[in-house]
Amino acid sequence: MLARISTLAALGIWLGASWTASADDNHAILILDLGGVRSDPKPRMVKVEVDTGKVLAQSEVGQGPDVGVSPKGDLVAVLTHNIVGGAGLGHARVEVYRTSDLKRLESGLLPFTGRMVYMDPVSDGTVVFAPDGQEIIVQRMISFFNKEKPSPLPVNNLQWNFVKREVDEEGFFKSSRKEVTVPRSGVPDFLRVLDWPRVQFWNPEVAIVEAVDVSSGKILSRLPLDYEDDPFVKGLDPIALEAAEIGHRYFKLGANGSVIYGGGRFAYYLPDPGRNPKLEPGFIQKIDLKSIPPKVVRKGKKREPGLSTGLAAATDAGGAIFVVTKKSEKPKEGGNDVSHRRIRIYSTADLSFLNEIESSLTNIDRLSPSLDGKYMYALDRMQSKLAVIDVASGLEVKVLEKVTKYPYLMIPLPNLYEEK
Predict the structure, then answer these.
(1) Which domain does 60 fall in, by range?
(2) How far is CA 303 from the centre of its chain?
(3) What's the pLDDT at 87?
(4) Residues 323, 300: contact at Cβ < 8 Å?
(5) In a domain, 1, yes or no
(6) Burial, 230: exposed, middle or buried (Cβ in 10 Å; 0-12, 13-18, 19+)?
(7) Are 313 and 369 in contact (CB under 8 A)?
(8) Residue 323 domain flag
(9) What whole-number distance in Å separates Cα of residue 141 and Cα of residue 282?
């Protein structure tokens, strides 16, 4: 049963009937559109004004795009396959655009070859800017088979490569520092880069928040978040999982939840047993990333079952955590499961449950908050719809139809008036 709507929310229903953005409330988002035809896809970046749905700027990009936006929101980097004459060459391409008008500022090849993590489907961009916007982290997957007996097992390590926003005469970006290797890591979720050269991220392969000094390449700390509830790993030092040969523990890699960034000092752990599905779901936890080392500063009072933690977003500015619930209703005879469209809302202050709402979208594929915390954007990829939810009331105040052909990723940008 959905939670009762507050008086403020009820007022919001009336306001939502004719909602428009005020002069200081003009929001924009950047959409990575993968195109609509598989035989001839034309990926592009599209900047959309949320109030009107108007396309403000767009630019075609290459094949297999991965993206990343600078912490200030003024730059976007696009990493693509380097395809010439229909053939893919070894060095991937990076292009840097200004988000205000999607004007291309730099274009060049990476000074190394290898398998980039963007070659795996991911729900978030994996390209990362340094806080000053002058340096870019490009991630590569280094995979090999270990020497386990009787059968070798695969090992995935992550390597960060760093390039300056400078292109040499041969068309290659210049390396800016020595690469950093993160043992036993799948595609990480970057949490905070503002304390550069200290970077904090969530490693879902071993279920820890890690802090790394990119200047020295040293892993500064490892914070396990779901070990104590799980007999598979209870009492285990995460370092033990970084070795190439870990025996039967290889089959217990993974996490019983995920971590999302709130946009400021804090991140939030959301429970969803994956490593050990038989476990009772755990508790929401609040992590202070500025603390050295990062630490848990608050834990929810009760266990939280039924969360689709891959479909979640938090906004410290708006004081809320939005999490899509799992498909729990039985499908009609001959039909599919009930779509993801119910959302639970929790407080970032004390992690208490605030509300449960249902979106008008057929399915929610992604959630992202506006940078000021006023709105939560929900994306339905197949229907090409973007719902705008008021964070304070939990009301859906607007739906943009056919925002692009196939919107895959969306990235909120600074207020348009702040941009000017």
Answers:
(1) 7-328+337-419
(2) 24
(3) 57
(4) no
(5) no
(6) buried
(7) yes
(8) yes
(9) 30
